[in-house]
Fold:
Amino acid sequence: MNTDADKRDNKPRLSEALRHCRQRVRAKAVLCAAMLVLVSVLCGCESGKEAERIKVYFENTSATKLVTVDYHPAAAEDLDIVWELFDYMQNAVRTDIIAAVPASFQLTYADISQNTLTLELKGSYDDMSSNSKLLMAAALTKTMTQLSSVTYLLLKVNGEMAKDAGGDEYGILRSALFVDVAADDPNNFINSNMTLYYSNLAGDALVREDLSVIYRRGTSLERTVVEQLIRGPQIGSSNVKRTLPSTESVLSIAVTDRICYVNLSQDLQYESLGVFNYIPIYSIVDSLASLQTVDKVQILINGSVLTTDIGDRVSVSTPMDPDYGYVEGAMR
Structure:
């Protein structure tokens, strides 16, 4: 039989037991909450991995066109993914495809800057057929430009800019420059005629070139014009030379009130190209103004207004009208 003293002694014990019980309940609740968070994170990671799926480009067995294989990168950072993708592209993961990048090639350098991926390779490039060179450039470009931080590819091989079958540098590459029927619906592309102005061989006048260009639907024609200038004259254009360096890239381009604002990644390097300073400027202005959407052009470098005026006659700090007086045959 419990005495009053025993009952008083039991009260602290009951209180202590209740406290331990509440602590256990709280601990279980915290553990459950943590497990829910963990499950949520894991599910998020899975969906993230799904979102990171990349179509890696290979050649078909007859080496006539590109085919794709879905791949989920293990790396998190884009530059790390570049190295991972390059290794993956050198292995034929199915019997019906071959590697577009020969296994003998080594990737010696990779860097991403201003949406441009620079790749430096080492290998027997001169021993490759012209078609294999083209397919390798296309496969690398179309694979790597799927990364969120990469819009353009600059490809170097054995210390030099990669060249096409005609010996001309590829320059800045982007996915829309390559159309392969295996992976791209032809309806996604537009064929357009455009007028471009390159430099004559003396570097003191512009030369007009009319050409037909295929570009991806959804890409502005204004951007395509400037990127074609960066790519340089087409094969067979022996009487003209480039007006913009192949390392140039378009950071942004927009048309407002018929004024085209072109934001480039670096200064216009007329001296290294062997042309007068007005040649790169009017190459851009006159080429863009040949479009029906553009009356004037404002050139920016990394978001800042271009400050190098053309002598004491022309200011480039405000939107510029075209001036076809610099075209060969119409020179002042």
